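[job 0417] fold request received: 40S ribosomal protein S21
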Amino acid sequence: MQNDAGEFKCSASNRIIGAKDHASIQMNVAEADKVTGRFNGQFKTYAICGSDDSILRLAKADSIVSKKF
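[job 0417] inference complete; emitting structure tokens
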């Protein structure tokens, strides 16, 4: 199987995630409507290798989580 999409990079460190890196994850975080709190059909995709602290930092930068969290 060939990867036609190109390299897969970590959202936090911008390092290439290898095919054998079994500790890496990719997750979609849903965006919610500010008034109703319901899913608005959009999401942010994060690819992380290494630290789970990076997920919180990226979510704060994208205003998914409050900066005061």
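[job 0417] notes: Residues 32 and 39 are 4 Å apart (CA to CA). The first strand starts at residue 25 and ends at 32.
[job 0417] exit 0
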